[in-house]
């Protein structure tokens, strides 16, 4: 299980949940789920990305929980969810279905926001009955559906076999991330964030990523290397918005534009100049605002509900 490590104060310090529960996935994997905000409010479900945890959504949870019921969960092996030998896109979809079943009433609708691997989770689950029963709309942040390694620009050289091979070795490294040092922060900022990211943003991201055990990081890197959820994009029929930073090296803008072209019900793309891969932390107000827009338009609680 991941070590719990995050900033303790400021906008990126995780709020204390109103309630916690455990969702059990199809293969028995246990998932840590946090519930925030009032019970009878519109519902938002947050799915974090590779090497992250519920702490990644701290800014969104803090703002949305004022007038939304916010459900955030740790992907298997991340945060407080124990690791599992089963690492696959099917497992991601199973886990999301399990969370929706555990946290929502039958037929209750929610806006789902997924960042990076969390967005891939949503795409993988798009055909599942549980997803279709509960999804009112979706926000995909900084994510892609295939060719993640080939299109990554973490290695600053021309696209081709050599860059792909080097990128695969870097992202799929079994090595520990090492001590939490200024150099480690600089490396993480280069790979995952825009050049103008504030130090407190970098600190928040670095602490979360460094908390992920190297075995978990490696296992999921192998899944992402072979990822192909393009079919799920075409089946994602609920209203879907897309957000991407123009300086994203892990899932460059080309991925977002491909999603827009393939989505059957895309309701807009927002390209954020100079921002990197960690858009919910780099642009917290904008991402929170996009979630609110989707709730207002597609998932408001009816009077008397």
Report on the architecture of this protein.
This protein has 305 residues and is α/β, with parallel strands linked by helices. It has helices spanning 58-64, 89-103, 117-125, 129-134, 148-151, 161-171, 182-192, 199-210, 214-225, 230-234, 253-262, 279-282, 284-298, and strands spanning 19-24, 30-36, 43-47, 69-73, 110-115, 135-141, 240-245, 266-272. The protein has an eight-stranded mixed sheet with strand order 1-2-4-3-5-6-7-8, sandwiched between helices. Helix 1 (58-64) crosses helix 13 (284-298), helix 2 (89-103) packs across helix 3 (117-125) and helix 7 packs across helix 8. The model has no long low-confidence stretch (mean pLDDT 94).
**Which strand order spans the largest sheet, edge to edge or round the barrel?**
1-2-4-3-5-6-7-8
Structural class: alpha/beta
Topology, number of strands:
8
Span between N and C termini?
39 Å
User: Strand-residue fraction?
Assistant: 15-25%
